[in-house]
Automatic annotation (TrEMBL), chain A:
Name of the protein described by the UniProt record: Spermidine/putrescine import ATP-binding protein PotA
Signal peptide residues on this chain, from the entry's feature table: none
EC number(s) reported in the record: 7.6.2.11
Domain ABC transporter: 8-238
Cellular component GO terms, alphabetical: ATP-binding cassette (ABC) transporter complex
Gene symbol of the encoding locus: potA
GO biological process: putrescine transport
NCBIfam families, alphabetized: potA
Keyword Acetylation applies: no
Length: 357, 289
């Protein structure tokens, strides 16, 4: 985040389709020059929210303030907001440059100026040589860039991107993640991206909002969301998490096997309440000095991931094995076998506590 | 050739043979007559000549070709105009109603062509519903009947071939990615501009297919001009009919037919190649999209 001037203020917005509530009383502020990610599974209302920002859906109630002006009564074609469609929606009968010029022609801009801006945009997306091609003569990645250029060339106050990388293969996707971030920085436009891919959100966004059932579950920087998830759902949704069930006693948690798990804070839960202790797989280790917590177990499965090994370890904490990521340099070439005895260590500072539900 | 190819040749063979034996061969047999002389008392003298074709391009027959093309062209324009907007209305109506609306659009096809055409005579004649209605509205003596005029023929052609246009225009409109229209709106276009610059150009293949259909079927039609035109003026179909059945000049009839078929083939080929190009484009989009 460069600064914290509020650009967009979504106030108590709802969208009901017949009797289902796609978005239900959601409020959210988005700052200027921010790369903001709306993260959620399908049906969480994230795409409906995006379409309301673009003006393609009318909210049932609530306000959308852009630069302090309510956008709800403003027609989609008149909003300083552009949307990059998941399908890209490039016009198949127009060339790359005609597609990019389309939005400027709608502004009745002078031809010479349009040509100049289109040329600039083609340079930014590095497709100068493809200007005369039609969308069907482009690769997926090139089309994605043209769709982006077509929306960006209008210099919107807000650029909305609906699953922009969904149609690309994995390698291209991680390239484009960085490319998008670079571009956002270069053009200085606020980006709001919708995605169901938590890794994508973590890599690209300045701030993330997790959506669930038409409302916000949690909003914060990637680090806040990853390290301090609000509840068990958020913890599970972003990254991987081990959950060890137990009961609060003093400032510790007692598992059903009577083993004590020490934590920094019980997160406001009181004695006798049923909770889970949550630890990320990469925060556990086979070798850790001064760790407050440890547990013995047997290797259930071992999966080689190149940079690390993902072990599933069966322990006394319930039927689900505990996941632990072992960095490759710490184990050398020694393979793990199912049944090997291991001890897992972790710090109390890395242990979060959530309601067990 | 692999099994799949063999299989498809076996399957296509009966239809192909049928077409050759019962369509191509008889047609060729008739059409080659165009290169021979007419006998003095009818019949055919098998002496090669190009006279018949000279006659076809003679001002009399060329004029009939042109007026037939004009009538067919007018019918085509009107049918495309009405049919496109009907298709647009169907394609933009709620999804669950579309099959029903399409069914109604093609309903006239289920009745006999002659009956449909006679029905227009009942509607249009001097004692007909249209004139009667205008009298009821208080127009003195009613509007003049248009039966047995060029307008009646055009009306009949439009009416009969409209369903083809509706069906061929509906397909691209219904298939069109709705994101295109939304993207156009998002980029600042009004609804009319979106229609003019996005929807209409993308439905051109359907419009072209429908237009060629109407034109080709209209220019060769002889029933509608005979019934609704009352035999007062002729389209090329009527002339060919007369050459074969009344004037007994088969060579000239064959030559006229050949030129007519040539015109139709050229139009169909242009349309087919245009359609091929846009299909290629669509397939590619679907593969990557």
């Amino acid at each position: 985040m460069n600064n914290e001037n509020t650009l967009l203020s979504i106030q108590n917005i709802s969208k009901h389709f017949n009797d289902s509530k796609a978005v239900d009383g959601l409020s959210l502020d988005i700052y200027e020059n921010e790369f903001f990610a709306l993260l959620g599974s399908s049906g969480s209302g994230k795409t409906t929210l995006l379409r309301m920002l673009a003006g393609l859906e009318t909210p049932t109630e609530g306000q959308i303030l852009l630069d302090d002006k309510d956008m709800v009564p403003v027609h989609a074609s008149k909003r300083p907001v552009n949307l990059m469609f998941q399908s890209y929606a490039l016009f198949p009968h127009m060339s790359v440059e005609q597609n990019i010029a389309y939005g400027l022609e709608m502004e009745r801009m002078e031809r010479s100026l349009i040509d100049k801006k289109v040329q600039e945009m083609l340079e930014i997306i590095q497709l100068e040589k493809m200007a005369k091609r039609r969308p069907d003569q482009l690769s997926g990645g090139q089309r994605q860039r043209v769709a982006l250029a077509r929306a960006l060339v209008k210099k919107p106050r807000l650029l909305l991107l609906d699953e922009p990388l969904g149609a690309l293969d994995k390698k291209l996707r991680s390239e484009m993640q960085l490319e998008l971030k670079r571009l956002q920085h270069e053009v200085g436009i606020t980006f709001v991206i919708v995605t169901h891919d938590q890794e994508e959100a973590l890599v690209m966004a300045d701030r993330i909002a997790i959506m669930r059932d038409g409302n916000l579950l949690q909003c914060g920087t990637p680090q806040e969301i990853y390290e301090h998830p609000k509840d068990r759902f958020a913890a599970d949704f972003i990254g991987e998490m081990n959950f060890l069930p137990g009961v609060v006693q003093g400032d510790s948690i007692i598992a059903s096997s009577k083993r004590k798990i020490s934590v920094m804070s019980t997160n406001g839960f009181e004695d006798g309440e049923s909770v889970v202790a949550a630890i990320r797989p990469e925060r556990m280790s086979l070798f850790l000095e001064n760790a407050e917590n440890s547990i013995e177990g047997k290797v259930h499965t071992s999966a080689y991931h190149g940079m690390d090994i993902l072990l599933h370890v069966s322990t006394e904490f319930g039927e689900k094995p505990i996941s632990v990521r072992v960095p490759i340099h710490s184990v050398g070439d020694k393979p793990f076998k199912a049944g090997d005895s291991v001890t897992l260590y972790w710090y109390e500072k890395d242990t979060r506590v959530f309601a067990n539900k | 050739m692999n099994f799949k190819n063999k299989m498809s040749s076996v399957l296509i063979a009966p239809a192909f043979l049928w077409l050759i034996a019962l369509m191509v061969v008889p047609c060729v047999m008739i059409l080659v007559l165009g290169f021979f002389q007419r006998g003095i008392y009818g019949g055919i003298e098998y002496n090669f000549t190009l006279e018949n074709f000279q006659l076809v391009f003679d001002s009399l027959y060329a004029g009939i070709f042109l007026s037939s093309a004009r009538i067919a062209g007018t019918a085509t324009i009107i049918a495309v105009f009405i049919g496109y907007f009907a298709a647009y209305a169907i394609a933009t109506s709620p999804k669950k109603w579309q099959p029903t609306l399409l069914f109604f659009a093609v309903l006239p096809f289920w009745s006999n062509y002659l009956i449909r055409t006679y029905a227009w005579i009942v509607l249009l004649n001097r004692e007909g519903l249209l004139v009667g209605f205008s009298k009821w509205l208080g127009i003195d003596g009613g509007i003049p009947s248009i039966l047995y005029t060029e307008s009646a023929v055009i009306l009949g052609l439009v009416y009969n071939y409209l369903p083809f246009v509706i069906l061929s225009c509906y397909a691209p409109l219904a298939r069109m990615n709705p994101d295109f229209r939304e993207a156009s709106t998002d980029l600042g276009a009004s609804n009319f501009t979106t229609f003019r610059r996005i929807t209409l150009p993308l439905s051109v293949p359907g419009i072209a297919a429908g237009a060629v259909f109407v034109f080709v079927l209209s220019i060769g039609n002889f029933i509608t001009p005979a019934l609704l035109g009352g035999g007062r003026f002729q389209m090329i179909g009527n002339v060919i009919y007369a050459q074969f059945l009344t004037a007994n000049d088969w060579p000239l009839g064959a030559a006229l037919s050949m030129v007519l078929i040539g015109i139709m083939m050229i139009l169909l080929m242009i349309q087919a190649s245009a359609a091929q190009r846009s299909i290629g484009q669509k397939n590619k989009e679907q593969l990557d999209g």
